[in-house]
Amino acid sequence: KTGEHCAHRELLEEAGLVAEEMKFMGKYRVQVNRGGGILHIYLAKNCVKASAEALQKIGKFENDYEDQSEVRLTRKELVTQIKAHKIGEAQWLACVLMGLLDDE
């Protein structure tokens, strides 16, 4: 499977969304002192909620104990959250910042 295929699958599984386009934003080494891994960053564009059929097909929410909620922020509000140290994981912050750098 390609990285883009995996990004589409994760978006569907974790957020219940389908993206019209996945834009590759780069890959970066993470957790270098623990043996490392690679973070592949994709920007999901033009997302819509997945159909009930698509979610049922992958078993979405069947055994999902994560508490998730949708938060919509303007670019300015997102930058304010970043400056207030509200994004707790460095990898998440890297993904958000790469998205903010996208000018298309």
Account of the 3D structure:
The chain contains four helices and two strands. The chain is of the alpha+beta class. The chain is globular. The model has no long low-confidence stretch (mean pLDDT 88).
Task: Produce a short descriptive summary.
By secondary structure, the protein is α+β, with helices and mostly antiparallel strands. Helices cover about 40% and strands about 25% of the residues. A hairpin with a 6-residue loop joins strand 1 (about 15-30) and strand 2.
Descriptors:
single chain, alpha+beta, two-stranded antiparallel ribbon, 4 helices, 104 residues
List the helices and strands and how they pair.
Layout (H helix, E strand, L loop, with lengths): L2 H13 L1 E14 L6 E13 L2 H7 L16 H9 L6 H12 L3
Antiparallel strand pairs: 1-2
Report the structural category.
Answer: alpha+beta
End-to-end distance, in Å?
Answer: 27 Å
Provide the low-confidence segments as ranges: none
What order do the SSEs take from the amino end to the carboxyl end, as H and E? HEEHHH
Query: What summary fits the major beta sheet?
Result: 2 strands, antiparallel
Helical residues, percent? 25-40%
Q: What share of the residues does DSSP label as strand, in percent?
A: 25-35%
Mean pLDDT level: 88
Radius of gyration: 15 Å
Q: How many DSSP helices?
A: 4
- Can you tell me the overall shape? globular
Write out the strand line-up for the largest beta sheet, numbering strands in chain order. 1-2
Number of strands: 2
